[in-house]
Amino acid sequence: MESHKRGEKRRKARNPVKNEEIEELDERPGCSTEEVVRGKKGRTKAQKKYIGAHVSIAGGIWKAVEASVDLGGHSFGLFLGSQRSWQRPALDQSAAVKFQQACSQHGFDPAHILPHGSYLMNCGSPKEDIFDKSQDMLVDELSRCSVLGLTQFNFHPGATLGSSKEQCIERIAQAINHAHQQIPAVCTVLENMSGQGSTVGGEFNELKSIIDHVRDKSRVGVCLDTCHAFAAGYDISSAGGVKSVLDEFDQVVGLHFLRAVHLNDSKGKLGCHLDRHEDIGRGQIGIAAFRNIVNEPRLDNIPLILETPGRPGFEYAEQIELLYSLCED
């Protein structure tokens, strides 16, 4: 997720995608207005595609479910506590019950909900105090998932900060193994990175190296962020690019480890290594790639979650609607 994402601000549904929005997106190769409009008619959800957005927990963690419903989402991401502090109050049991009841009421499967880790965490840090606090926070996050009835948790792997990449990878895996020992069942999901600064996880082989060091491989996976992948040099924007990148991911990491996708266009160009999210179809990746993503059968039945900045008239609700309109029958 973009580091300066507008945190916990709730994205409210506004008007449907306007004709001028479709026309603007239509200027990109591979997307015709006729196709977009035809796709929109009468569709609220394409079978096997679970598209949603990162939503707010303001007012109570169960409010995230209501926010996702308001947006027309069929999956969602959320934070499990404050992003500003290492120490957070324990999750209220009554709030957890309300959350689970809301998920049941609105038909959200835990497999389509992906909590996002705090940006304070750096499980690869060479600084002992930061590593210890990050490891403890990872345990706390998995504990919150368990209380909420959630099955997976996504986080940024970490950064070397002057240490070697190999040492950083070993520390990340150490933190995961420790958290797995403390909390049962919840899967730790590594997010690929843009390669900005000293972050680890921009290359698929780095994700594979972390997974190789995790003892229980049934409890580790990957969330593929489209902006991060593109910024790291994986060209999903070219013709056949989505298929090619997924093929490479399968060869290097293994598609059975792919647990989710973060749907973000990119402000930066291919290989820029900048973590700068853009609205769907408004960046350097382009709408054709997102059409290929929502029609890629290898991405069936996993959460596809928006983390885009949004703009008036084209926020999460409109972008979810647009993405579903691109799904073919």
Automatic annotation (TrEMBL):
Q: Which family does it belong to?
A: Belongs to the AP endonuclease 2 family.
Region (Disordered) residue spans: 1-29
What positions does the domain Xylose isomerase-like TIM barrel occupy?
Answer: 66-325
UniProt KW Hydrolase keyword:
yes
User: What keywords were assigned to this record?
Assistant: DNA damage, DNA repair, Hydrolase, Metal-binding, Zinc
Q: Where is the composition biased (Basic residues)?
A: 1-15
Give cofactor(s), names only: Zn(2+)
Q: Which molecular function GO terms apply here?
A: DNA binding; DNA-(apurinic or apyrimidinic site) endonuclease activity; phosphoric diester hydrolase activity; zinc ion binding
Q: What is this protein called?
A: Xylose isomerase-like TIM barrel domain-containing protein
Species name for this entry?
Silurus meridionalis
